[in-house]
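Exam revision sheet. Question 4 asks you to relate a sequence to its structure. Input first:
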Amino acid sequence: MNYLAHLHVATQCDSQLMGNLLADFVKGRPDNQFSLQTVEGIYLHRFVDSTIDALPEIKTCRQRFPSALYRYSAIALDVFWDHALIQHWDRFSDVSFAQFVEHAESECQRAVKNEPFPPPNAF
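Answer key, structure tokens:
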């Protein structure tokens, strides 16, 4: 759910932005379903998620949620991370937030035009 953070990391890693956004919607192995750049973006997104989720600090934060809401804690924290990133954008990027959003939108639109999307049942 932390799309902004994933886009920012992807930019820093010179990874395709669309693949990093698509990752939350693709189940299983994306190999041979998308272009190599998109697949690499999906795997980067998954790597970032698993690395962050394994941090002891993140586990501690999730445990602070009531047990009935625990399954939603990761989503709530993701939304919070994007909020914090927006609030402190100038600490993490040399370009303005507006420029970054414009660049991300343009890159994603370009990738969509060139992507051989799989059949709908692949999602």
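Marking note for examiners. The radius of gyration is 16 Å.
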